[in-house]
């Protein structure tokens, strides 16, 4: 396959340039008449008209008018684009369109000014593209739609600088607590005394002892620093004494509602904080400057682009992040589209009071996709909410333990009702089956039904029951599944719950049989951004120790691709713009060094991304 990648690199055409304006993306086209530019900006495929179209009471006639205006605007756009730049023809390798429920490939794709003109026979593509079309020979590589993220945390990628990533091989061996502390000590040697020393991706299951490191152990090696180990789930931390003191957390202090604070038999804190107990720590952690965050945009989006993503999420957007990500300076730097989900637990006044922030509206390349709610925690941290007991108890050793919800039904339904009434799409984090029950009760209380096409998304939807699928179908829920769990933590889950529970994690096949449209995500930084690994984990559902969780829920290669393209596009109301290679959609592509539909399952992980194309423009290319 190295030869194919090399052939592709040699045959790349460097004559392809970005057209005047912004193509058929999300912003006005500078060189078009103002009225036409406004039509493109407000089309059902682009933003504000979609907001109106989804408001209750809008009739079919108005919808038809909106689509007619869009068709006219895009027609004018195509005419002007024909004068501005030549078309591009992609050919010379398998082209997977993802258009339809069965695999379909075509000979060629013609694009112009960021949109797909045609997908089909090469001769017809040449006729439509015209004599001056630029030729892009794939040299045997595979072209597919750009991958669509379903759930991750883009803003967290901006915070990597100055922190120890325990998942990075450069951190050294951390396979037991002794080596973990040694790696910590090496890293802290570069940090002045009295300052914060923060590590990310901490997973107690990675150490031989299978337990959380303690405050006393951290004090013993770094008594003069403020030490924080951030749990890989994002739902917990372990702190030393200086860090606890800085946050104002004292021995004997009770956990807040929905939180867990670990302590010994004498009531002395052992350093573990989970869920709502993290609030005081988050309030005092050092924050990056505006300039530091702006400088981090390039590296953060490269993490996505090199995986073939052209659409990403920031799936728990803080108020400060919402201001930052929708700023002009960030907009000038973004190469991919970014959906933001303001985090309900931090308040929604900023969102509701800003007239510029409208449901499904765009600010440059940033889409105000919906509102994020979190009902429970993490199953690997043992804070997810279940209807049955964890065999190992809670993170503090409490028995019996089923986890706790982070909010009450009444609190969730009141806040979700405010968002829903204003037309915002609801995104609800629920891992355990009891939390999924809460989500369903909430949707039912709000009167959401599939016929209304509100498309609430239940993020993770991991520990489902069969009755949940029936409810999802009735309500019109999009389940955002997380197949990587079947590799990284299925063995941990089996130590707490029986195989009948774990085998139904992320039940792709059952969801499709129920008529649902699932997606698959990485929850970055919980697991790394690796689109081919996500495909593989959905196809094999095999743990680190080789145990298969739910063989009957395995995906085919095509289904696994759907969960990275058409599935998340539908969940984001983006199916008319992205996720397929079809005339009229955005020219967002990923070039792979081999065809995933014909690659043996065991080799899926070795497929390489060669190039990522956003609206017809190369935004990332493998350098080797």
Can you put this structure into words, describing what you see?
The chain is α/β, with parallel strands linked by helices. The chain has 24 helices and 24 strands. The strands form five sheets. The chain has a six-stranded mixed sheet. Strands 6-13-14-16-15 form a five-stranded mixed sheet. α2 packs across α4 and α15 crosses α16. The radius of gyration is 25 Å and the shape is globular. The relative contact order is 0.13.
Q: What structural class do you assign from the helix and strand content?
A: alpha/beta
* Low-confidence parts: 13-73, 76-82
Mean pLDDT: 88
Number of DSSP helices?
Answer: 24
Distance between the termini: 13 Å
Rounded to an integer, what's the Rg over CA atoms?
25 Å
Helix-residue proportion: 25-40%
Strand content: 15-25%
Quick overview:
This protein is of the alpha/beta class. It is built from 24 helices and 24 strands.
List keywords for this structure.
alpha/beta; globular; 624 residues; six-stranded mixed sheet; 24 strands
Question: Layout of SSEs?
Answer:
Blueprint: H1 2-10, H2 34-41, H3 48-53, H4 60-84, E1 88-96, E2 105-112, E3 115-120, H5 122-129, E4 134-137, E5 142-145, E6 147-148, H6 154-157, E7 164-165, H7 177-188, E8 196-202, H8 215-221, E9 226-231, E10 236-239, H9 241-246, E11 259-263, E12 269-275, H10 279-284, H11 290-305, E13 309-317, H12 319-325, H13 328-333, E14 337-342, H14 349-353, E15 362-363, E16 366-368, E17 370-374, H15 409-421, E18 425-430, H16 433-445, E19 457-460, H17 466-475, E20 478-481, H18 485-488, H19 490-496, H20 499-502, H21 508-513, E21 519-520, H22 531-540, H23 557-562, H24 566-571, E22 589-592, E23 609-614, E24 617-621
Parallel strand pairs: 1-4, 6-13, 7-8, 8-9, 13-14, 14-16, 17-18, 18-19, 19-20, 20-21
Antiparallel strand pairs: 1-2, 2-3, 5-22, 9-10, 10-12, 11-12, 15-16, 22-23, 23-24
